[in-house]
Design brief:
By secondary structure, the protein is α+β, with helices and mostly antiparallel strands. Helix content is 35%, strand content 16%. The strands form four sheets. Strands 16-15-14-13-9-12-11-17 form an eight-stranded antiparallel sheet. A five-stranded antiparallel sheet has the order 3-4-6-7-8.
């Protein structure tokens, strides 16, 4: 219903009939309510023009337009929503004059200079407002004569002590009454009772039809259209409106509509609702005791599964499992993502989306992807929108424009501000090994800290150290074992990468792991780049078949060491490493990185390194033991 054009007679008649039908099985009604049910009318006789004129003369103000139009149809109203049992007509409406004694406390809080203008505008409300509630559940309905719109409408503010919040604002009396009609639908007797009479009327049929149209629109990729329909239907409490709208909100980033608690009767309970709920619980830092879904006294049939889901989400081992063609694509995409190829993972999912099938009428998207620790990072904000815009679930429509790849080409992106910390603009130090002819899972055998070194489960960057060295108490300046994240670096290449090494580059003791990495055949390239240790350092070394071919180290614009025959594309002076300033040296590092990328066709995945999960292992030491007479530092903690 359009608030600006309310047909009061038809609107109030429909509301009365719906109320009477909803209370047809209620035996205990007050005499007035029983009369209203028999007469199928919640209102009173219309107010005459003389009645309205007398009211305005008594109050000293002309009433706002929609309230005057309402009075011409009914001079008062019963059961305005769930908590106001009688609303004033021309004779009962009166100035509140702070009769509740709330003005002083509210004005002090609202009048604080730090509050927004719309909050401070409420100061004086309790003294100036026209009170419309006559009988209510400690609920005040106030017309504000100083909050007037361009159409002459006064805002309505509703406050109830048990809501513990500022008064809720409606832009006009018409808007308030429409909202109360919606509230009646949400709280109507028998609405949720299995054995009660069906709560069906013209309004419910109309809104249910809107939900059906919205679901079809959503599955055809028209999520904005669907959201508008669902937002209206949700106000009437229609089935599926809230959960469908919540799925759209989680994917398009609007959020804010509130998440309904999962229920075991929902076919998505274990596969999608609970995993997402577990993600929210852990992200909010809430204790496991809040996970009441694992309480067998409350959920006897699913408690064990719920406990397992929470544990899997906590450990990062949860897997979104589906059947059919889309389930196969999910498995394939996960394999791509765990080796860092997040762009390929999304391409697999995107191609399979039209084959996805919903699990019931309250389902419009594969939401469980957002709980999968490997695939959730793949679904960037742009890709979530593309998912929403892709026809699926047996519906058809135009395919959306691809969101595009997220991993930049080349390697020079590592030099950009915030490259490895997208949430900041600061630089990051890093070191990496690029290995030809070896799969990522073969790198521990070449570079592991000990025989039999194994890969960890996929880990987030901030979990790597805690996983490998949970009780570390001693750090040595010569025993420099890196914690390396691994993945694919292009056709025939793998990478092993460490962000922010715990020690700085030591030219004297450094031992390049490139020969060990290339011992199985093929080539290996080592890059170590420092910018956060004071003086910029860039090291590059390359080996083939276990033999070092060339290397160089530049520190602060000075070539500190060099060996072998450096390719022309990588000669430090030609790249500009002799620049006197840090920015010039960073530009030279960018040129060197892109030259390596061009020469060997390699890259490393930014999205996987910054937001994803990768397998990791502890490497052999990157520094030699101390020689005779050399000293080293050992630091003990705790």
């Amino acid at each position: 219903m359009e608030i600006e054009h309310v047909d009061w007679r038809n609107f109030l008649a429909r509301w009365s009939e719906e109320w009477a039908d909803a209370h047809g099985h209620v035996d205990e009604l007050s005499p007035d309510d029983a009369a209203a049910r028999r007469g199928r009318w919640l209102g009173a006789d219309p107010a005459t023009e003389a009645d309205i004129a007398a009211m305005e003369d008594r109050l000293g103000r002309t009433m706002p337009p929609s309230y005057r139009e309402f009075l011409r149809v009914s001079d008062g109203w019963r059961h305005t929503g769930a908590f106001v049992w009688k609303l004033a007509g021309t004779r009962e409406a009166h100035w509140h004059d702070d009769a509740s004694g709330l003005g002083e406390d509210f004005d002090e809080a609202w009048g604080d200079e730090g509050n927004p203008e719309e909050v401070r505008a409420q100061v004086g409300l309790w003294s100036r407002a026209l009170q419309l509630d006559v009988e209510s559940d400690i609920t005040f309905v106030l017309l504000d004569p100083e909050d007037v719109g361009p159409d002459g409408e006064w805002a309505v503010r509703v406050w109830a002590s048990w809501r513990a919040a500022d008064p809720e604002r409606y832009p006009s009396f018409a808007a308030f009454m429409i909202a109360m009609h919606q509230e009646f639908h949400v709280h109507a007797p028998g609405r949720d009772e299995e054995d009660g009479p069906a709560f069906v009327n013209g309004t419910t049929r109309s809104q249910d039809a809107s939900v059906s149209r919205a679901r079809t629109a959503a599955l055809r990729g028209r999520h904005e259209e669907a959201a508008a329909l669902l937002a209206e239907a949700r106000k009437y409490g229609r089935p599926y409106a809230h959960e469908l709208l919540d799925q759209i909100a989680q994917l398009d980033g609007t959020r804010g509509c509130g998440v309904q608690p999962p229920h075991p009767d929902n076919p998505r309970f274990l596969s999608e609702q609970l995993p997402l709920k577990a993600v929210d619980l852990l992200a909010g830092g809430r204790p496991a005791e809040d996970w009441h879904y694992s309480d067998p006294a409350i959920f006897p049939d699913t408690a064990r599964a719920a406990a397992d889901i929470l544990q899997a989400v906590r450990l990062g081992t949860y897997r979104y499992e589906l059947g059919g063609a889309f389930g196969e694509a999910v498995h394939e995409a996960r394999e791509q993502a765990r080796w860092g190829d997040t762009d390929a993972a999304w391409q697999v999912l995107r191609a399979a989306l039209p084959s996805w099938e919903p699990l019931g009428p309250g389902h419009i998207a594969p939401m469980g992807l957002l709980a999968d620790p490997l695939l959730a990072p793949v679904l960037t904000a742009e890709r979530r929108l593309e998912l929403l815009r892709t026809p699926r679930g047996g519906e058809s429509g135009p395919a959306p424009a691809p969101a595009g790849d997220r991993n930049p080409e080349g390697l020079s992106w590592l030099v950009r501000p915030g490259a490895l910390r997208p949430w900041q603009t600061s630089d990051s130090d890093y070191r990496m090994i690029l290995v030809e002819g070896a799969a990522p899972d073969e790198l521990p055998a070449l570079l592991g800290s000990s025989p039999g070194t194994m890969l960890s489960p996929p880990l987030r960057q901030w979990d790597v150290s805690r996983h490998h060295r949970p009780d570390q108490r001693v750090v040595s300046s010569y025993d420099d074992k890196a914690l390396l994240s691994v993945g694919r670096a292009g056709q025939g290449w793998s990478f092993a990468f460490e962000q922010d090494p715990s020690v700085g580059f030591d030219t004297v003791r450094f031992v390049s792991p490139a020969p060990a990495a290339s011992a199985g055949g093929g080539r290996a390239i080592v890059i170590w780049h420092e910018r956060c240790q004071g003086t910029p350092v860039f090291h590059l070394s390359a080996a083939q078949d276990g033999t070092l071919r060339y290397s160089f180290t530049v520190r602060g614009g000075t070539l500190e060491s060099a060996a072998g025959s450096v390719p022309a594309e990588l000669i430090p002076r030609a790249l500009g490493f002799d620049a006197p300033d840090a920015d010039g040296q960073a530009a030279a590092a960018a040129r060197a990185l892109d030259a390596v990328a061009r020469l060997h066709g390699v890259t490393v995945p930014r999205l996987a390194l910054t937001e994803g999960r990768l397998h990791t292992f502890e490497s052999l030491s990157w520094s030699r033991p101390p020689g005779p007479g050399e000293t080293y530092t050992t630091i003990s903690f705790g």
